[in-house]
């Protein structure tokens, strides 16, 4: 899952980004509304965690732009105000969910994951395919009942492949969904991660390479 965090309190923004990355999400961070508009114009995000009171361009206007563009991106709006009227207003302009500050990080994670599931065809919360069971919420992977320990990027790649339900996923798509914008697209990081993931999942191999196209399970 790829997430954009838009928050002008830099310490909070960086802390949220760090926490989301620990949950195997690819996260970009910006600190004002103008930068947010630049990012959503060039990157596809599953979820935008959007502070409402932003400098340069207000969070409401960022949200309206996402809706105007018809993007499948889901918006979780943050605000220091807990007034019901503010929450209603935020939802009416196009936000998908609303979370007042201060918030429990565990709740933020749960809401981001719930919104991320809504950007694609609805799938069960626990993914199962080819003897593999993946639980995104618990960050657990099992193969034939045996738990497998994966690094965050390995988990992210496996989740993308599992969610594709047998369709081929290109290296570019994996790079888009599992890594942030700071990753050099010309590196072999996807190939190396897939190789390591195959080794950890064991035999017989379940990740198939489709020459010239990508990977599938």
From TrEMBL:
Residues 124-217 form the OmpR/PhoB-type domain. PROSITE patterns: OMPR_PHOB, RESPONSE_REGULATORY. GO terms for biological process: regulation of DNA-templated transcription. Coiled coil: none annotated. The modification 4-aspartylphosphate is found at residue 51. Keywords: DNA-binding, Phosphoprotein, Transcription, Transcription regulation, Two-component regulatory system. SMART domains: REC (SM00448), Trans_reg_C (SM00862). GO terms for molecular function: phosphorelay response regulator activity; transcription cis-regulatory region binding. Member of the two-component regulatory system CutS/CutR, involved in the regulation of copper metabolism. CutR suppresses a defective melC1 gene, encoding a putative copper-transfer gene, probably by altering copper metabolism. This is Transcriptional regulatory protein CutR.
């Amino acid at each position: 899952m790829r997430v954009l965090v838009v928050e002008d309190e830099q310490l909070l923004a960086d802390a949220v980004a760090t926490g989301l990355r620990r949950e195997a999400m690819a996260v970009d961070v910006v600190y004002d509304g103008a930068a947010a508009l630049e990012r959503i114009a060039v990157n596809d995000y599953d979820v935008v965690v959007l502070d409402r009171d932003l400098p340069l361009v207000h969070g409401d206007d960022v949200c309206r732009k996402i809706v105007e563009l018809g993007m499948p991106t889901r918006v979780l709006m943050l605000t220091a105000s807990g007034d019901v009227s503010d929450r209603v207003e935020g939802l009416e302009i196009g936000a998908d969910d609303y979370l007042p500050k201060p918030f429990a990080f565990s709740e933020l994670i749960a809401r981001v994951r719930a919104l991320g599931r809504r950007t694609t065809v609805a799938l069960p919360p626990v993914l199962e395919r080819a003897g593999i069971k993946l639980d995104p919420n618990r960050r657990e992977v099992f193969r034939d009942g045996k738990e497998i320990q994966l690094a965050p990027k390995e988990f992210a790649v496996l989740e993308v492949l599992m969610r594709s339900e047998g369709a081929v996923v290109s290296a570019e798509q994996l790079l888009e969904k599992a890594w942030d914008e700071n990753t050099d697209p010309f590196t072999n990081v996807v190939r190396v991660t897939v190789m390591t993931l195959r080794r950890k999942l064991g035999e017989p191999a379940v990740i198939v390479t489709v020459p010239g196209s990508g990977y599938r399970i």
